[in-house]
Amino acid sequence: MKKTVHIIYPFSKIIDTNPWSIGNNIIRALKKNFKIKTYLWTSIEKISPNIGDILIGHANSNPYTIFRRSVGSTLWSKRILLQPYNEDKHQISYLYDLIPKCDYFLTLCGEYWFDRIENSKFKKWKKKAIRIDLGINPLDYPLIKKKFNSKGKRKFLYIGNDYAYNNYAKNISFLEKLANFYNSILFSTIGNKALKNINHYGWLNLTDTKNFNILRKYDFLIQTSKHDANPSTILEAMSWGLIPVISKECGYYNVSTFKYIEINSINRSINTLKKLQNLTDNELIKLQKKNLSLIKKKYNWEIFRKKILNICLRDKDEFNQIYYTKKEVDFFENAKKNSPNYYLKFNMIIMIIKANISQMIKNLF
After folding, report:
1. Across-strand partners of 104?
2. CA separation (Å) from 69 to 45, 55, 86, 88?
3. Rounded to an integer, what is the distance from CA 238 to the centroid of its chain?
4. What is the pTM of this model?
5. What is the pLDDT of residue 169?
6. What angle do CA 79, 132, 109 make, to 5 degrees?
7. Which of 119, 126, 243, 316 is the most exposed place for a label (fewest CB within 10 A)?
8. Helix (H) or strand (E) segment spanning residue 83
9. Contact (CB, 8 A) for 78 and 52
10. 332-340 long-range contacts, Cβ below 8 Å, gap at least 24?
11. Which DSSP symbol is given to 192?
12. Arithmetic mean of pLDDT, 109-128
């Protein structure tokens, strides 16, 4: 008889772009080998598993939500935490008491963050950590950049939403400063915030072909994040044919076809932008082609699904237990309580209440 995998992650039967595509592909990875049950990460219910069931998903910071309430059962064969990782203590410290209870911590992040774990405040998590890349479906993000702007007139596009819940990790104040020092006419933004002297489109559905003409105007995607696990917008831009110009703190580093800017130096970042303006069309096309190949070979959902399935099917690894010193606990607790995601903050309480009332109403009909 098939065991059941209990999945706590956003998913959709209609939408297949991030973040729903992550949950959708977890389901696709496992549905042939397991029975599937899905849950909202904001739910306050408690799962009662059968012997040998698997728990996989994203934990909320609230101790009364489903992953945290359910993880302690002794009937699970595996407990798998899956969520973004970077070194911002205010984004991730709330996980410190949960990771010792899990068998695996699947880190959605680029190599930059994963390679630093052993020398970070979170080094004890490494023994349970497995890095996993995001993927995209190139059919949803077709190649639309067929011709680059001429030298000196090449344009930069920022795509993203910067909110308190991610501790304003996008670092758009640096982007604003950089654009205005360089030439703000060459920059535009898509997302929730407008920047001084920079053209702003607001929020756009970028899978809608009506907006492709906007994307075609730009040559580079620019991201200046300071603590970003591995934004999917970078992969989407690659698939459209834009060249990523990013900080290594976006999670992706040592990628030869990306261009890197330094968020601790306006001058060096401006020099990088100037060099990009002088690349030949052939050089840009070569970068573009290599990035399209990377999407197919590395950043695709098939690899993601195989990794998820392999972890669920294989025999459980026996890890040493994680124990914290008092100093470490004090560090995590202080960071957690000063986080925008602290569960006792008014907006976080309201989010849980609304989500559960909404679910109760849906269950009535």
Report:
1. 80
2. 8, 12, 25, 25
3. 16
4. 0.94
5. 87
6. 105
7. 119
8. strand 78-84
9. no
10. 332/89, 332/93, 332/96, 332/97, 333/93, 335/89, 335/90, 335/93, 336/61, 336/93, 336/94, 336/96, 338/90, 339/61, 339/90, 339/91, 339/93, 339/94, 339/167, 340/90, 340/164, 340/165, 340/167
11. S
12. 97
Residue at token pair 């010792």: 100
Residue 365 one-letter amino acid: F
DSSP string, 220-278: EEEE--SS-S--HHHHHHHHHTPEEEE-GGGS--S-TTSEE--TT-HHHHHHHHHHHHT
Cβ atoms of 133 and 296 within 8 Å: the answer is no
Q: Are 40 and 12 within 8 A, CB to CB?
A: no
Average pLDDT over residues 134-139: 93
Tokens 């205005």, residue?
180
Q: Any residues with CB less than 8 A from the CB of 137 and at least 6 apart, and which?
A: 16, 21, 301
With a cut of 70, say whether residue 118 has pLDDT above it: yes
Point out which residues pair with 56 in neighbouring strands: 7, 80
